[in-house]
Amino acid sequence: MLLLDRTGVIDDLWPRIGEEDPLPEAGRALVDFRRLGEAVKTGLELGVHLPNDTEADAVVSRLARLALISVEFPSFADGRGFSIGRALRQRGFAGRLRASGPVIADQFAYLLEVGFDEVAVPDSVAARQAPESWQAALGAITLGYQRGIGRPSILEQRRAARA
Amino acid sequence: MYRYDEFDQRFVDERTAQFRAQVARRLKGELTEAEFKPLRLMNGLYLQLHAYMLRVAIPYGTLNGRQMRKLAEIAERWDRGYGHFTTRQNIQFNWPKLNDVPDILDALAEVEMHAIQTSGNCIRNVTSDPFAGAAPDEIEDPRITAELLRQWSSLHPEFTFLGRKFKIAVTGSETDRAAIKIHDIGLQIVQRDGETGYRVLVGGGLGRSPFVAQELRAFLPKADLLPYLEAALRVYNLHGRRDNKYKARIKILVHELGIAEYRAQVEAEFDRMDGDAVAVPTEEVARIAAYFAPPDLADRMGDADEAARMTAASSDFAAWLEQNTASHRTPGYRGVTISLKPIGGAPGDATAEQMRAMADIAERFSQDEMRVTHEQNVVLPHVAEGDLFRVWRALASAGLDAANKGLVTDIIACPGLDYCALATARSIPVAQDIARRFADPERQRAIGPLQIKISGCINACGHHHVGHIGILGLDKAGVESYQITLGGDATETAEIGARTGPGFAYEQVPGVIETILDTYLDLRLAGETFLGAYRRVGMEPFKEALYAAA
């Protein structure tokens, strides 16, 4: 697995807890969504992994308790996660947001723009798409028409030019 | 019309450079074909039956002479000297080479054009009324909204990998010339208590499960447009089906949830959203609107009667004037439809020479503006009546004077088996055979207003479901078979056509159309159109005429 944020490759500090594994005593744990109820009762620093048929609203009452939310992208073509990420941010999630799955470098900018901080891609993708490609892809389009995304907004730049 | 500023230009230039790099990465193997496919599609590049096909966006169908000339140049330099105007108000080039495509995109960017999102599972080129800004019945020029949506939907980070394509159409008139009811979202500019806003329709579409759109909101204040669309798209992106591409359009979601439930979800999402963070600032709307200010048309009432006088000199001109021109909001002017349906031609095709002729005529006589229509014709929106005879002569010398707008030979057809990888049957030759059968202009006029629409497969790019007569070409055990539907309608009174019964062989189709139209001519009341007559008498008389003998 290759983990990247806008600065490049980063270390994964979040041990993923398998379905049958016991929860650790202390520290960080990234658990499946179905174990969230159990995990919130612990003192662990928590991350949760959401399948992409789960709504942001399913975790909305726990947002303050979560330091990381990892959203599943089963395929780069399945874009539900983009809306889940945006909805989580709009509902006030301020922790770390991760896109997990075989997304491609050309989607990196979109992911950051809807609110993700990092992407975790499997080795099969990482083998073809080196970290430099991910960095290069980020710089391909330097401005956008939407507001409230990371790219400098054309609308805001026009407004500034008028002022 | 809209002109790029430095930001629009930089955006398109960067997009072109990005695609050039993506092609290089594909050729190096960094991207798999599966990964490259949506990237090329979102730049308009399809892999067809014989070659790549490049679909160029003509936002809401509007283009000027310089842009049309560039399309002509592309057709000559990188294609085979012609282009194909589509039902989505775009143009397709059927023979480009992959390596040339970045250069073609650069050439387009020189004239403020691109191929962004003309394909792929994203928000497609926004379409509109070809008579926008000219029609007498318009509340507001719908292109202001369409351009706003073009910008907002371009590389929208949340909605670029939807379950399926997403098409939005906008009309500013009650009379719907943009077929908004067969779009994923249709916007109609309306007024309520003196305020201008939108009536929002959702869930229309053709394909293998045709639906007429339903009303999502009777009145949406203008300022809420983008947040409301984001809410509507988000609900679709999250809940639309992903298990079957034929059930992935929003029409299926709306159908399965029911409009009331879908509306409740959209409204809930809309209420939760910080609309102000998404909405477009009013000064930006004003900036766009200024580009669509009505053209400064000279007073031409002085020679407005010239067209009427020339009808005495030429009956061909009289027929064209009657059939291919429409009223204009400015006295002394008319909107002109250039028919791309000459008898025996491929519907929607134009050669490079014809494109240049249209550009010349538009520059001289129509405020340097043209509009591609969803009927695959080209409109000159603002022509002085005193110039109509000269315009007609110029069109005639380029073979663009077919006087058949809205008649039996003004046929919509998809590319079909001659080009398309999805097609199951030929469409263009069917259109050509029907047009030849009804070539006699007097016979066409006697039949009156009629829309025949032909699709070469179930995906319905030829809009057969909403043709007054629809023709759907299928493959039955290796043989082409054509199903006929009657009573379809793409306007504000939209209907999905009903099937007559078993299909017909390729050779039978012109005769079948003739039987249907003879039946109509026999039973029609004075002044009754084909569609009117069908709505009055229903399917039975036609069915009997078609199948009783067999």
Structure description:
The complex is a heterodimer of chains A (about 160) and B (about 550). With about 160 residues, chain A is of the alpha/beta class. Helix content of chain A is about 25%, strand content about 20%. Chain A has a 7-stranded mixed β-sheet with strand order 2-1-7-6-5-4-3. The termini of chain A are far apart. Chain B has about 550 residues and is of the alpha+beta class. In chain B, strands 16, 17, 18, 19, 20 and 21 form a 6-stranded mixed β-sheet that branches. In chain B, strands 1-2-5-4-13 form a 5-stranded antiparallel β-sheet. The longest helix of chain B is centred in the first third of the chain and has 23 residues. Chain B is globular and about 60 Å long. Chain B starts with 5 loop residues before the first helix and ends with a helix. At the A-B interface, helix 2, helix 3 and helix 6 of A face helix 1, helix 2, helix 6 and helix 10 of B.
Q: Which characteristics define this entry?
A:
heterodimer, A: 163 residues, alpha/beta, B: 550 residues, alpha+beta, 5-stranded antiparallel beta sheet, 19 helices, 21 strands
Largest sheet of chain B: 6 strands, mixed
Q: What is the topology, as strand order, of the major beta sheet of chain A?
A: 2-1-7-6-5-4-3
Structural class of chain A, by secondary structure, is: alpha/beta
Helix coverage percent of residues of chain B?
Answer: 25-40%
Distance between the termini of chain B: 56 Å
Beta content of chain A comes to 15-25%
Overall form of chain B: globular
Q: Assign a percent range to the helix content of chain A.
A: 25-40%
Structural class of chain B: alpha+beta
Record field, number of beta strands of chain A: 7
What does this entry show, briefly?
Chain A is an alpha/beta fold. Helices cover 26% and strands 20% of the residues of chain A.
